[in-house]
Design brief:
mainly alpha
C-alpha cells in the first residue's frame, strides 16, 4: 500500500473486510493504511429472504426444487442471526440432505430439495457471532483506530 497516496486521481481503492477486526495485524492499522471502519450488520429479514431465493433458484433450474417457502424460512426464529455465508452453507447442506435421501429411495433418480431439508439444515446452523457482540467489537476497534 506504500506509494498509494489515497487521492481519487490515483485510481486505486484498497478495501478490506473482516469479521474479527480485533485480530488484524497492527501494521495494517497504522495511519494512512485502513483509515475508515464501517460496520456492516448481518442481513435483515428481506436480505435473508433474497439470499434464500437466490440459492433456491439454482435448484429450480435443474428441477430439484419443490415448494420452498423462503418467506417462512427467512423468519427471525429460523435465520435471525445468520450471516449470508451461513445461509448459503445451510442451503448447500440441504442439497446434500436431498441427495442422501434420494440415494436411499428406490426409483428416485433426481434429488429434490424440500422445505424440510432446508428447515433441518437452517436450524442446525449455530451463528458464530451475535450482532451485539460484533457491534461492540467494531465499536471498540473504531474507537482505538479512528483517531
Amino acid at each position: 500500500m506504500d506509494g498509494v497516496d489515497g487521492s481519487i486521481s490515483d485510481g486505486v481503492l484498497v478495501l478490506g473486510a473482516t469479521n474479527r477486526p480485533g485480530t488484524l495485524d497492527s501494521a495494517l492499522l497504522r495511519p494512512g493504511r485502513f483509515d475508515k471502519v464501517i460496520f456492516v450488520p448481518n442481513p435483515d429479514r428481506e436480505g435473508r429472504e433474497s439470499i434464500l431465493d437466490a440459492q433456491c433458484q439454482s435448484w429450480g433450474k435443474s428441477g430439484a426444487l419443490h415448494n420452498i417457502n423462503t418467506a417462512y424460512l427467512s423468519s427471525d426464529d429460523i435465520t435471525g442471526m445468520m450471516t449470508g455465508a451461513e445461509i448459503v452453507g445451510a442451503c448447500r447442506e440441504a442439497g446434500m440432505l436431498a441427495i442422501r435421501e434420494s440415494m436411499q429411495t428406490e426409483g428416485q433418480s433426481m434429488p429434490i430439495v424440500l422445505q424440510k431439508h432446508l428447515e433441518i439444515s437452517l436450524r442446525a446452523v449455530k451463528p458464530l457471532l451475535s450482532d451485539a457482540f460484533v457491534l461492540s467489537e467494531y465499536t471498540h476497534f473504531e474507537d482505538e483506530h479512528s483517531k
